[in-house]
Amino acid sequence: MTSLIESRSLTIHRPGTTQPVLAQVDFRIQPGEIVTVVGPNGSGKSSLIRALLGHMPLASGQVARRAGLRIGYVPQRVQLDTAIPMTVRRFLSLPTRVSNAEAEQALARTGVPGLGPRQLTQLSGGQFQRVLLARALLRDPHLLVLDEPTQGLDQPGIVVFYKLIEEVRRDTGAAILMVSHDLLVVMRSSDRVVCLNGHVCCEGTPQHVSGAPEYLALFGAGAEGTLALYRHRHDHDHDRVPQGDHLHGPGCRHDHSHAPAAPN
Fold it and tell me: What percent of the chain has pLDDT over 70?
């Protein structure tokens, strides 16, 4: 198979019922590809991820994974028991022990070198997300799966984290599969966006999906064109947006001759 993971006619029932949370979902992700899954609450985004990883039973259909596939996973939530001390260094060796050099290299790659001796409970939200990413990268994954990785981060933190993910893909060649809870911010470098609402409503480039009738029916006409995050240089200021980062939206007027083509 050419894909890293494929699902065919995947159907998942809600636990203890015959009510489908997802029905007849065909999905694939290719080597080096960035795919972002969006949808409203309860649309089946996290269920799709769990099924693809083999953590959720299927009512019907099938999931195929490439032989020898290594997956790095950044979960949506990690519950920490504050009564149990746990350093970053120890966390990185769970469940598989890694050397000090490997741990430090992973932390440096995700922009938080030297955090090894720190307690997990002392980290900021942004630092903790980078530590989770470092732990996932220690597997040298072919596929990096991130389930709502920017939840709890502020807008500048989201911008920085997405840039880091792009750098990981560039430097390692790993494919990226990400669930996004923020419909206003999807990585500009996504090769495909898949919109779920119990089934695949639409999929394609961010530009295509942001104008698709199915997407607009779910999120309203005001959502059109909101799926892409752009970074470019300009000679004017935007309030509350980090320098060099600009969220393209209604009412923005400036010369785009030097910028990527806008979706709207």
Answer: 81
Q: What is the mean pLDDT of the chain?
A: 82
Report H helices in the chain: 45-52, 88-92, 100-109, 125-137, 155-172, 206-210, 213-219
Q: 1-70+143-151+176-264 falls under which CATH superfamily?
A: P-loop containing nucleotide triphosphate hydrolases (3.40.50.300)
pLDDT at residue 61 tops 50: yes
The more confident residue out of 55 and 182 is 55
What are the sequence ranges of the domains in the chain? 1-70+143-151+176-264
Cβ contact 142:70 at 8 Å: yes
Which residues neighbour 90 within 8 Å (Cβ) at sequence distance 6 or greater?
Answer: none
